[in-house]
Design goal:
Elements (H helix, E strand, L loop, with lengths): L1 H34 L6 H32 L8
């Protein structure tokens, strides 16, 4: 019982980390470039485009991990992450 609870909490925390640490911080940098793209060179814009892809991935993956962790706490099985 305790090991299952620790596993579900860890799944949730992995998702929360993806969302808060990675997606939100990447988003700050990407938003700066997207707000005034003419002020940046081509390399910076390309890095912002790639960064936006990682931001979207971390957002959705993080939310999915959080949903799986919460569902496992309520004994629903949504699959593995």
């Amino acid at each position: 019982m305790l090991s299952r609870l620790l596993r579900t909490i860890s799944i949730f925390l992995i998702g929360l980390t993806k969302k808060i640490v990675f997606a939100d911080r990447i988003g700050v940098a990407v938003d700066a470039v997207y707000s005034v793209p003419a002020a940046y060179n081509g390399t910076s814009v390309l890095v912002a485009i790639i960064g936006y892809s990682f931001q979207i991935y971390c957002d959705f993956s993080g939310y999915s991990n959080m949903a799986i962790g919460i569902a496992k706490m309520w004994d629903f099985d949504l699959g593995e992450f």
